[in-house]
Amino acid sequence: MREDVGNDVRENVKGSDVTTSAGTASSPSPLWPTGPDSVPRMGANYTPRTGWFHHWLDFDLDDVRRDLDALATLGLDHVRVFALWPVFQPNRSFVRPRAVEQLGQLVDAAAQCGLDVAVDALQGHLSSFDFVPSWLRTWHRRNLFTDPDAVDGAARYLETLASALAGRPNFLGMTLGNEVNQFSGPPHPDPDPCTYEEAGQWLTRLLEVCERAAPGRLHTHAEYDAVWFQDGHPFTPAQAARLGRATTIHSWVFNGTAQRHGYEGTATVRLAEYLIELATAWADDPARPVWLQEVGAPAPLVPPEQAAAFATATVGNALTCERLSGITWWCSHDVSRELADFPELEYGLGLLTSDGEVKPAGRALAEAAARLRAEPPRPVRRTTALVLDAGEEATAPHRSVCAPGGPFFEAWVRLADQGVRAAAVLAGRVRDAVYLESRGITEVVRPSDVK
């Protein structure tokens, strides 16, 4: 049963304030899409073909240029790159000038290829490996989220990188780190526990450091999907959707979606779309941009021979979202089999092989990029919204309703199977007609009413 948004509701909320996060804290970078008519950007997470992220230890600019040229040839317009934290900041008070210089050379090489660059700093966690400086571990064990010296060290590092890159016109901005929320609790084997208040303070301080060092750029933070799905997780949907200049989404169907729904299931090929709509629901500013910062085709849940079709469907569905500002595929190149101990799925996620050959998924993304340029997509105006009740907004204590198998998730998928491109709306905003009108929502439906 759907609930029409009638005139009586409009009268009850007429003149009420709608809290937004508009302004400096959420305004997108001038290099990033800023309005409803902007064309989303298409790029890749750069995984160097030679040496993976260990390439910083033996940096070869010619190798980097070769890789970036290959991505530009696919028609992509940006890359996200990763600085290995222990390599760049081996001591809390020392950020290596040579490493910073090499990062600048990479950004300049990308500019020569016509690519813009977003930089992740606190690496942190990559493809099942943790890269954390020795000054945070063993004899020097500190909590990276709450220890004042540790936070000061991270701030120094971020300020150094952002300041060094601020004058480069193709520098998009900093992401604090890759999925650093995985350090904050289980299942991490050696977690750095924090409260949601402490997580918010950590995010706010480090984002402010980036903004001061490189004003006006796309400074963001990135979490894996526990932020949206895991009850009690200290990093919250409200933080994800309200801090920084855009909301970042990491969409991985191995989170239970493909296991429940199959590689061709509606939930699987529309998981990225679903997460974008969750992010939009949690935002205070209805116009806040959402960056699909990671999405890939993990085998065997997505069979390798189906990776291209999965990429085409996933990108096409994501492009129906009004707030989508960019898609950055994971990843550019396969991990070489010469490197040991990666989970099996990590070896084959590239758009190109480790020998530099374009894979079917790479061709599919190139075709999607060409279509974007030739005929910009027309996002769907989502007039129907599914009501999301995860409890109190700041902490979302019941956010597992949004996870695969949860009542909100499965109801959204059932609507999708019925042909409805549904938005999401927080339960506390259901009767705020001014807010609903700002999003074009004319009717709402509750999960229990979706048959």
UniProtKB/TrEMBL annotation:
Record's compositionally biased regions (Basic and acidic residues): 1-14
Renumbered residue ranges of the record's region Disordered: 1-40
Highest taxon listed in the record's lineage: Bacteria
InterPro entries: GH
Residue ranges with Low complexity bias: 19-29
Protein name: Glycosyl hydrolase
Natural source organism: Streptomyces rimosus subsp. rimosus
